[in-house]
Hints:
The strands form 2 sheets. Strands 2-8-7-6-5-3-4 form a 7-stranded mixed sheet, with helices on both faces. Strands 1-11-12-10-9 form a 5-stranded mixed sheet, sandwiched between helices. It has 2 domains: about 5-45 and about 285-390, Aspartate Aminotransferase, domain 1, CATH 3.90.1150.10; about 50-285, Type I PLP-dependent aspartate aminotransferase-like (Major domain) (Aspartate Aminotransferase, domain 2, 3-Layer(aba) Sandwich), CATH 3.40.640.10. It is built from 13 helices and 12 strands. Helix 3 packs antiparallel against helix 10 and helix 5 (about 100-110) packs across helix 9. By secondary structure, it is an alpha/beta fold. Helix content is about 40%, strand content about 15%.
Amino acid sequence: MQVSNRISTLLSGGSDGWEVFNRARQMIAEGISVTELTIGEHDIRTAAPILQDMHRSAMGGHTGYASIPGIPALRDAIAARVTARTGVPTSRENVMITPGGQSALFAAHMAVIDPGDTALYIDPYYATYPGTLRGASAVPMAIKAHASDAFQPRATDIAAHAAGAKSLLINSPNNPTGVVYSRETLEDIAEVCVEHDLWLISDEVYDTQIWEGEHISPRALEGMAERTLIVGSMSKSHAMTGSRIGWVVGPAHIVEDLINLATHTTYGVPGFIQEAALFALEQGEAFEAEIAEPFRRRRALAYNVLAAQNVVGVVPNAGAMYMMLDVSATGLSGEGFAYALLEAHHIAVMPGESFGAAAAGHVRVAMTVDDAAFESSLKTLCDFAITLATKG
């Protein structure tokens, strides 16, 4: 007996990009101390008041089946949040709650993709994107952004591949680069979507982590509300990664279809988790800023460290909890450098190649350890790169 082609080809016979991460975890299991600058996991846990509210809700009996599209109060809160931040009138009919942002990504593509349709996405990309598209029975097609453009996608490159495609997936603030797409970039992307009748799926889970400029949701651009699906999550904004609570925002008729999908797949999200998410949102923007502040602070530390040398380059990051560093001057690939750094200094970073061909020669550093450890690790990384470049 064999598994389905959908499952067996999820990675298209290639790597899932997590080998360095897995090696670091193996070393930790063997008792070796490793500084992990790999995944986007806060170095703080979910705030105690949120957990206390979750406990209150669960003990209050909200442990049975919850409303499949999400409890009304949470949908209303997210709709109000989106309206306030984008200026686009949004109601609960435009919102469906999902078990995390990853589930929202899958559901959004399931809503607009038929088997065999081409689904476009930008390279560099979050490591799960191609597999998510294949899981939705799409044919993934990467559109390469360029380091020389600070990884802002070119509309002309998207347009060149848009004929016959059904959707485009973007992510701003971007994981892995930390780039925030400019208004010009987004307006150009919107123009391509309208011209080629593309659905736009916008992953905005880092929208509270903006260090420079502004976050613009493409749903707010002219002619885009009816063709845009927004993916959001409590994971990054409220340090609730393990709670698995996200959402899709889009046209009401699409949300109705997504409710049908959820009925036959996830069957909703536990009510006590939804009520805790509602409590968390009610803490307001000041609480979200508090969660984001360590990454703003570490970004400043990183720029100070990087300014003291000229071997390791940095992609100008305006948002998110990551920095993309150019280590090509060492003569190694991003993967080669990441493995060498791990073995020599027990510091784990993600190879740029884990996020697509466009990021080759780079490594992604997650700013997810305490300030002192982060600064020390980055200094070691730079010193190691300088040593390699000098030997080369």
